[in-house]
Task: structure prediction
Amino acid sequence: MSSLKTRGFYYKIYSLLPIIILFISVLNEFDFNYLNLDYFSFNFPFILIFFFTIKEFKHFDYLLVFFAGLINDTVVGMPLGVSSLSYILICIATSYFRNITIRPNPIKDWFYFLFIISLLNSVNFSILTLFFSYKLILMDYLVNTFFTFLFYIVFVSLFKYYLKGLDD
Amino acid sequence: MASSRDDFIIAIRSAFLKKSTQQKFSLLTLVFISILVIILSNLDLRVIKYIKIGINELVYRSSFVVSIPENLAKNTFTEVSDYTTFFKDYKKTKDELNILKSKDISSEITQYENKELKELINDYISSSDKILAKIIVDHDSPFLKSIIINKGSKDNIKIGTNVYDQSYLVGRVIEVNFKTARVLLLSDLNSNVPVTIAPQNVQAIITGRGDDFAEIKYIKQGLDNEFDEKSIVYTSGTGAIFKSGIPIGKVRIEESDKSKKFNVEFYSDFSQLKYVFVEVVTTSEINLETEKENEDIQTPINAKLKILEDELKIIEQSNIKFKDENENLKTQINELNNMITKFQGEILDQKQIINQFDLDKNELEFLRLNLDYGHKCRKSFFNNKGYIVGTTEYKSCVLNRGRINE
Result:
């Protein structure tokens, strides 16, 4: 009985892993910035949210994604709500993409991801510079978008293993 | 055509409004909430301010806990790389320390002088306490360069408080919570600092570049030609945001074909910060010894009179001291004069003795020669060319060894 209970507990933790990782990544800014590689940066939460919302993963609550955005803003020091809006816009984009897609294709997903993150980073950049008078370097955003796009395919293969493990 | 448009609208509506079984809110609601949060967070309302402080405290602490494993890995990596260059660094540091020790003395003197001068002009004294703060969150974001420290309004930290690494400026506080605060680093694009560039004594503003350098801006044309790589940059204190005279970095010249850029290389390495010093400034008027004195110096004229009185006292005291010294010197001169007179008497005696000795010596010589040549000079029956004994001619004849002058 107890072993079943324990197994249930581990299963729950395992199924909540994406959302836990999302919170860890926004709290920890998991992006290898301390390596001090010139221009190198990528946005892990974007990859995570895009993948799990496009797969309509049932444990990936939009409200929690919204809170993750608030935490990210607090940690990074941006105006509260900016990241939440970006994350929710990703959810909307993936939801729309799901609705119009009959046959899913990873490559199409990948390039759709590029389009979405470019759009979101542009929105972010515009909001911060126009409404909040932040001084930002556009090149940093472009490089960030590029590396996020490149890393998507790497992380997707890892996430697929995770989903496979969940099915087993 | 119409059907594809309908499909698009249906897909959009579904994306915005459809809630799956697990979702509590539709995405449209969350979009509105996000926009509301953005607007509310920028309103200067007390309630929102307190909510923000609460969220910040909670998130910063959580972030610190979550970052522990990554920080551990990062620190291990840094420590290993540090050990490889340990000895070289040690020797370099030792040399630098010796130089700094000597500089520190002159710096202390300058500080004392500065304090004295401030007291003379009845200025305010800013007694600053530097408190040590630990960096709890430093994610080195590519977009915004800021750190979170574990000191907040509880420790008397305010917005604008200067933050140091040793004695080098690293930034200023831009957000204060109860037990945490956010520090905007000098390397951030949004950071502007009024500076003085020495020894050229040029005023400028430096702006962060988002990397390890800052750019020197707003310099009068022509003045930048005077800069070289030995020029140092420190805060000018203009605008009263930063204290004056805090070292920031050295000038680095970036030359390209068309232009010449002047950057500042920070003394402090912002990526290696673990602890920083936060300057808690308490401004107070100069404390005087007694209340009466306090009352006396209420007006500037009284203050000046007080200073003059003090100066007079000092001058009188030094006069008395000089008089005493003068008396002592006079006595010493008299004693020395006496000694000189005594010595002169002694010299005279010595001279007399010497003269006497010379006379005796001549007499002895004459007697000796007289024995040998006296018969040649003495007038006698056989020597009628001689002289009578006792005369000067006789004496000179004896001394000339019997030769008679014709």
Remarks:
- Chain B touches chain A through 52 residues (CB under 8 Å).
- DSSP finds eight helices and twelve strands in chain B.
- Residues 288-406 of chain B form one domain.
